[in-house]
Amino acid sequence: MKPARFDYHRPASLEEAITLLTRYGGEAKLLAGGQSLMPLMNFRLARPTALIDLNGIASLAYIREDDGHLRFGAMTRQRTIEFSPLVRRRLPLLAEATALVGHLPIRTRGTIGGSIAHADPSAEYPALLTALDGTVVARGPRGERTLRASELFESYLTTTLGPDEMLVEVRLPTMPDGAGFAFEEFSRRHGDFAIVGIAAMLVVQEERCTAARLVTAGVGPVPTRLRQAEEILEHEGYSAAAIEAAARRAGELVEPDTDIHASAAYRRNLTRVLTGRALRRAVARMIGR
Amino acid sequence: MTDLTAIRLTVNGQVREGRCETRKLLVDFLREDLGLTGTHVGCEHGLCGACTVLVNGEAARSCLMLAVQANDAELLTIEGLSQDGKLHPLQEAFHEHHGLQCGFCTPGMLLTALDLLQTIPRPSAAEIRQGLSAVLCRCTGYQGIVKAVEAAAVRLRSSP
Questions:
Q1: Global ipTM
Q2: Which of A56, A91, A198, A237 qualifies as a FRET site for A249, CA 20 to 30 Å off?
Q3: What is the CATH number of the domain that holds B109?
Q4: Pure H helices in chain A
Q5: pTM of the model as a whole
């Protein structure tokens, strides 16, 4: 199959892109890496009137360290993030999860902004934005606003971005030195979307777990933070028993759907199993330092 | 009549030009407009990897790019892998280790492997398998392909 006809625009600046977006009033799609949009267009599941290709806007691709954050231009390629020494040093959880996004040839083109704006709840980056408590910057004709993950993701493939708004930057707080972390996911084939994914991070000070993060991918319409499971770790520490209790609680907390890939019960069980694996690996990393 | 857009790019070291609709996929432009039919069209949604080519030195699915997006780009397709009639070390290794059967996935497999070895010159067995999972092969069961890439990695490291 081939895409249906569309008007093609390749703006050279962000301002020009937003002017075009406003002009088409929701009938245009932004083309970032194209690794999700192009398949939809090839199968004519998406038939936008116009495509606004962002690949000509060089100023949208960057990684900058700034006041306890890494800031990523929306068009920063996943491949660039995967091999960035700065990301490996400051956000090792992001580096680990990026290697699980599709395959290397997909990451060549795929972008951080595109993946987050696409809001597939099975994808790694929406879960990462949630787990790292990051924000995105959206720009429209009326200016900029900053949104947290919980304010951005609405449902499957749906965000609160307006039809004339564009995600321009992703800001992720850098991880505390020595934090334990792991991203675990299960899929039938390497590179497939996860049936369930778990992002885990543990911050320990003087043997006490001061902060735990557990976030799911693939078990509901949006990535979900498993606060009650995190609290078990914050209260009881990171012993094998506490990890087991947190994993069990994680399995109870999720409300997964049944679909063609897996039943709700299977996803619930995977959530428990993967939470345990992620936490054990996070602790092993922390102790190994 | 639909407007056609002029495209100018470098393919396998040669400057090539063409005119096509903006909705034309890069893989179709390569095959239909430039006559380079070595790049295969498989699933057309980025899953099978048969259409993988190198764009500015990095592997990408040519079914998920518009031809107009390759304007000014430098491409390497399977037709450019051998030099002066001599097979590339990867191609030789695929030949020696029986890394193909029907050959449909082979162009994408070779360019994916080339990108992998240029990115990770000393890949572990797991990294090779993970890298090759980007391309679907339904004939070989991958064993021969993995052996070929392992052998080519050694050969490419020792060649200047």
A1: 0.96
A2: A91
A3: 1.10.150.120
A4: 14-24, 37-42, 78-82, 85-90, 92-98, 104-109, 112-118, 124-131, 149-152, 227-236, 240-253, 264-288
A5: 0.96
